[in-house]
């Protein structure tokens, strides 16, 4: 997805106009470094350098902790998948799906680290790109509607040793992590996603053929059996694919953990901490604002709501979208408050943006904390509805006025909090934050 800076119109005015609007996609593109993430010095004396340095250092601690949790839960997922493949049945498939959902919790809280930190944004496409044309990977239903103009939309890597994409023939006889990584954006289409969480999700759940009705994907465990009772065809290749794509996810997360490991002389974290503190503060705030506005309010909610399209929801095969939205928003709040609850239940706290803003302007700090809490409450409504049986793809259905309004309310809250993020940044001397809108108008 090519990211565009927000127009100069007041975000507060946008938030007000959204309250009466009728509406509310992350692609597999390797994201470009946003121009808005460049740094400018704040007005002299507005931020104490030592205090700001402490905030950036604690932020780096949080990033390391979140990615460490994402890595450990991905390894737990890998173990569950190995157990499933050793004995494919309903019980082991359910356990693998449960492990996938658990692995999403820390990873989604990492998405706020994108945008300003281009080392993450450039890497993220291999790990979490979506929506994907699942016909690139495996068999699909006859009703399958792929992205227009995608030459690899029905290539079916699992069923073929060689695939044809436009004029090119590509050897896929050997399914390895490296081969799968090379197939992302095949033929120039962002919808060709061969790796990451969502490729694994599709392989575990299969297509969700329920539209905006209840129910998620329902791939049978027998798609991974061999011999009598096997379904799906090409099961050995499907088993190999699932192992390889999971191994790639684990190694990608290991790489990012290394980038943020403390006391390493030449990794990304060391570079960040050596820069002026304002650079780090800007990256933190830009990530918060961009995930809030262009990505979560725009790509992940507005697009799917406007089109009444479950194909555009984030975790579309598993119907886990409500959780993905909740933990994305939780990540934004984490960064501002300097808090993160690890998967083992321990809580990481320390110097925060909130403490800096409160010192500069207590009213601005209180306003942003209130907006962050309000956003979480609005998205909690979607979580509660899902727990009661009405998932996100049902909320966005045409004619579901109450469901549509729940999503609109969450979008409005996200846009409003983005205005407060900009206001808080201004109190720290960062007056040109320009959060990424992903070219959406609210």
UniProtKB/TrEMBL annotation:
Keyword Signal part of the UniProt annotation: yes
Domain Imelysin-like: 65-420
Residues in the signal sequence: 1-19
Gene3D superfamilies reported for this sequence: M75 peptidase, HXXE motif
Sorted UniProt keywords: Signal
Localization of this protein: Cell envelope
CDD domains: Imelysin_IrpA-like (cd14657)
Cellular component aspect of the GO annotation: cell envelope
InterPro entries membership: Imelysin-like, Imelysin_sf
Protein name (database record): Peptidase
Taxonomic placement: Bacteria, Pseudomonadati, Pseudomonadota, Gammaproteobacteria, Pseudomonadales
């Amino acid at each position: 997805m090519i990211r565009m800076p927000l127009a100069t119109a007041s975000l507060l005015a946008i938030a007000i106009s959204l309250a009466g609007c009728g509406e509310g996609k992350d692609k597999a593109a390797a994201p470009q470094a946003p121009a808005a993430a460049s740094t400018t010095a704040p007005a002299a004396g507005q931020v104490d350098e030592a205090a700001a340095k402490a905030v950036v250092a604690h932020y780096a601690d949080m990033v390391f902790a979140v990615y460490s949790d994402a890595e450990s839960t991905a390894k737990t997922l890998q173990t569950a998948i190995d157990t499933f493949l050793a004995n494919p049945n309903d019980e082991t498939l359910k356990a693998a799906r449960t492990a996938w959902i658990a692995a999403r919790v820390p990873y989604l809280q990492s998405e706020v680290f994108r945008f300003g930190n281009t080392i993450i944004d450039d890497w993220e496409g291999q790990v979490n790109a979506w929506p994907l044309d699942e016909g690139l990977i495996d068999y699909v239903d006859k009703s399958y509607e792929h992205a227009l103009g995608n030459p690899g939309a029905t290539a079916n890597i699992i069923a073929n040793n060689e695939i044809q994409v436009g004029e090119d023939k590509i050897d896929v006889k050997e399914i390895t992590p490296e081969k799968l990584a090379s197939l992302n954006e095949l033929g120039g289409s962002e919808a060709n996603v061969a790796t990451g969480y969502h490729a694994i999700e599709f392989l575990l759940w299969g297509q969700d053929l329920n539209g905006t009705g209840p129910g998620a994907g329902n791939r049978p465990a027998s798609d991974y059996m061999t011999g009598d009772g096997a379904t799906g065809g090409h099961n050995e290749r499907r088993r190999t694919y699932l192992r390889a794509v999971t191994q790639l996810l684990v190694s990608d997360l290991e790489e990012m953990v290394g980038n943020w490991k403390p006391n390493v002389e030449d990794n990304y974290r060391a570079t960040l901490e050596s820069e002026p503190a304002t650079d780090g503060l800007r990256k933190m705030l830009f990530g918060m604002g961009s995930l809030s506005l262009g990505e979560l309010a725009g790509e992940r909610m507005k697009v799917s709501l406007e089109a009444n399209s479950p194909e555009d929801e984030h975790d579309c095969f598993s119907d886990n979208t409500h959780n993905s939205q909740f933990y994305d928003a939780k990540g934004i709040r984490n960064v501002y408050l300097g808090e993160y609850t690890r998967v083992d239940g321990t809580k990481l706290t320390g110097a925060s943006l909130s403490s800096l803003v409160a010192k500069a302007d207590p009213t601005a700090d209180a306003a942003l904390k209130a907006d962050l809490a309000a956003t979480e409450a609005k998205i909690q409504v979607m979580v509660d509805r899902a727990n009661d049986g009405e998932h996100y793809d049902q909320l966005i259905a045409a004619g579901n006025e109450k469901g549509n309004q729940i999503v609109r309310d969450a979008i409005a809250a996200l846009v409003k909090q983005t205005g407060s993020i900009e206001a808080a940044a201004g109190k720290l001397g960062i007056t040109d934050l320009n959060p990424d809108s992903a070219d959406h108008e609210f």
